[in-house]
């Protein structure tokens, strides 16, 4: 028994020097790498809860690279641009229920739904109403003329990067009658950074009507889409023009939407009403 105790004591005395400060530092570094990988499988709420457990976890999990990964992962977009803002803030504004009508025209807003996110790699956009891919782009004309003749138009000087698409349900702006139950659906797209820019927050940026298009004929559905011109012919974008694969059946009144890496489109079947 005594020999065993002496051997045990000898092992302990030999093992102790191995845990030097350098070894502990290396162990912590490896531990941090492991938790960084684990964080890639957590949602934002779980990351925050874990970060609140200790200063060590906070220092590891509040690193901006973790929030960039979470943001790109949850929005399902590739890493396509740099940003002037912290990714944790961008992540929060993309998942906390904020939308354009939260800041403007609240009295008109009824409901909304998130469609998804996409990217502008170029600064030129093509807006369409009929969702029929043209064999070639129409000659550019004044926006209103293009809308009247081609049911489409160009927009230039688009901010590149990640954009978020929402469908907004708002009160019909045609009349001011209190008894009017008319509603309007709006395809609302915004840059990921919009809610953090000073011009938007202080109200100095105003909405501007680019153009309008009156539909005179009877139609069974309404649709619209916005596309990065650079990727209009790419395989992922052309899926949006295959309407049979994603729009609802004729008696389905629920709006349907589809998003790709560089475009978004929406379609809604219409019911007859007494509106003008």
TrEMBL record:
The protein's name is F-box domain-containing protein
Under the heading InterPro entries, the entry gives: F-box-like_dom_sf
Name a biological process GO annotation.
reproductive system development
Q: Which domain of life is it from?
A: Eukaryota
Q: What broad taxonomic lineage does this protein's source fall under? A: Eukaryota, Viridiplantae, Streptophyta, Embryophyta, Tracheophyta
Which Gene3D superfamilies does the record match to this protein?
1.20.1280.50
Q: Which GO terms describe its cellular component?
A: nucleus
């Amino acid at each position: 028994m005594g020999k065993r105790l002496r051997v045990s004591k000898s092992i302990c005395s030999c093992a102790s020097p191995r845990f030097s400060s350098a070894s502990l530092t290396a162990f912590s570094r490896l531990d941090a790498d492991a938790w960084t990988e684990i964080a890639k499988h957590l949602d934002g709420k779980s990351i925050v809860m874990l970060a609140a457990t200790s200063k060590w976890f906070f220092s590891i999990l509040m690193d901006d690279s973790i929030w960039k990964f979470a943001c790109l992962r949850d929005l399902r977009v590739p890493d396509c641009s740099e940003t002037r803002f912290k990714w944790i803030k961008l992540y929060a504004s993309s998942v906390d229920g904020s939308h354009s009508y939260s800041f403007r025209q609240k009295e008109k807003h009824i409901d909304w739904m998130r469609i998804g996110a996409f990217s502008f790699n170029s600064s030129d956009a093509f807006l369409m109403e009929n969702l029929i891919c043209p064999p070639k782009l129409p000659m550019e004309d004044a926006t209103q003329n293009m809308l009247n003749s081609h049911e489409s138009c160009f927009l230039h000087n688009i901010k590149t990067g990640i954009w978020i698409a929402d469908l907004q349900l708002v009160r019909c702006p045609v009349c001011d009658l209190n008894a009017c139950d008319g509603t309007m659906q709006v395809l609302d797209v915004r840059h990921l950074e919009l809610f953090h820019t000073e011009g938007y927050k202080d109200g100095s940026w105003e909405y501007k009507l680019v153009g309008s298009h009156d539909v005179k004929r009877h139609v069974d559905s309404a649709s619209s889409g916005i596309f990065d011109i650079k990727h209009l012919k790419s395989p992922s974008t052309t899926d949006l023009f295959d309407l049979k694969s994603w729009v609802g059946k004729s008696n389905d009144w629920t709006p349907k939407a589809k998003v790709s890496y560089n475009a978004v489109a929406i379609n809604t079947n219409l019911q007859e009403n007494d509106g003008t």
